[in-house]
User: Which sequence fits this backbone?
């Protein structure tokens, strides 16, 4: 048996689609644990809990995603934990695909592949496609080919339960921390590109900054938690790989958007440096709701 963990907060409008995309894959032997603090989302999950024996809902104290995940990990009975969110949905056979690499006992954690639901025809949608296709997908393929570690996507990833007992409550990007910790234990990090997860990304400047500030800040925060200070992502590595993104534009408009993205990323890393290194902000100060992704 495996445990599928869904974290959600005020996602009563999307959690149904998330659950449907999981249940339709016909894995009745796997338990589905939903963790959320708000009544509206829990009511929606309760409808599924009454209908399906393998769905359960637990309430978290609204202390942040790491706390919610710790509750779910303690509750989980499966050997493999599959983590996703209540505002995304899985592609057909994604659960089967993300479990395949675990046939190798040396594999400790596996990442799925996010796909953007945003239109590429506008700037913010273009950013989401570029960052998922080049920044995430191509980078993971390249790392795996070289037998190097990858950082798994928080939208869909799975790991062996016995490897992670508790997640630090102040961590911004638990997916990045867990990926690095499992790699430090000597296990392989793997990629399952056919394990598809469909995501709606921010469609305005304010929400884009909020989302990227916490995810990028999480990478900068890793130096306080890891034995080895080497990280898969950093400002210097992003600068080094900047040439690759200019092969992505299809026209002059997208080329200009790519240039703008470079400056936005520089601005973002400056904010992250201030948040983590100078002001030492906590999770509640950085983890703000991104309305346009719901």
Assistant:
């Amino acid at each position: 048996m495996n445990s599928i963990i869904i974290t959600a907060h005020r996602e009563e409008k999307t959690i149904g689609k998330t659950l449907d995309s999981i249940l339709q894959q016909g894995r009745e032997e796997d338990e589905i644990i939903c963790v959320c603090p708000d009544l509206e989302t829990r009511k929606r999950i309760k409808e599924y809990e009454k209908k399906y024996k393998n769905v359960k809902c637990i309430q978290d104290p609204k202390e942040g995603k790491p706390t919610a995940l710790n509750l779910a990990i303690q509750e989980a009975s499966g050997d493999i934990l599959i983590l996703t969110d209540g505002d995304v949905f899985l592609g057909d056979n994604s659960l089967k695909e993300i479990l395949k690499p675990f046939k190798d006992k040396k594999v400790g954690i596996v990442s799925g592949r996010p796909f953007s639901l945003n239109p590429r025809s506008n700037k913010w949608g273009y950013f989401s496609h570029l960052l998922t296709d080049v920044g995430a997908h191509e980078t993971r393929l390249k790392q795996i080919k070289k037998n190097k570690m990858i950082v798994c996507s928080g939208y869909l990833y799975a790991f062996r339960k016995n490897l992670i007992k508790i997640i630090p409550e102040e961590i911004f990007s638990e997916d990045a921390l867990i990926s690095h910790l499992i790699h430090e234990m000597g296990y392989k990090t793997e990629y399952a590109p056919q394990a598809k997860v469909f995501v709606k990304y921010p469609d305005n400047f304010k929400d884009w900054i909020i989302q990227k500030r916490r995810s990028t800040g999480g990478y900068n925060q890793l130096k306080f938690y890891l034995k080895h200070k080497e990280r898969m992502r950093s400002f210097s590595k992003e600068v080094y790989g900047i040439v690759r993104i200019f092969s992505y534009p299809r026209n002059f408009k997208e080329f200009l958007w790519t240039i703008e993205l470079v400056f936005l990323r520089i601005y973002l890393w400056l904010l992250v440096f201030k948040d983590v290194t100078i002001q030492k902000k906590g999770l509640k100060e950085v983890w703000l709701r991104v309305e346009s992704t719901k």
In short: The mean pLDDT is 89.
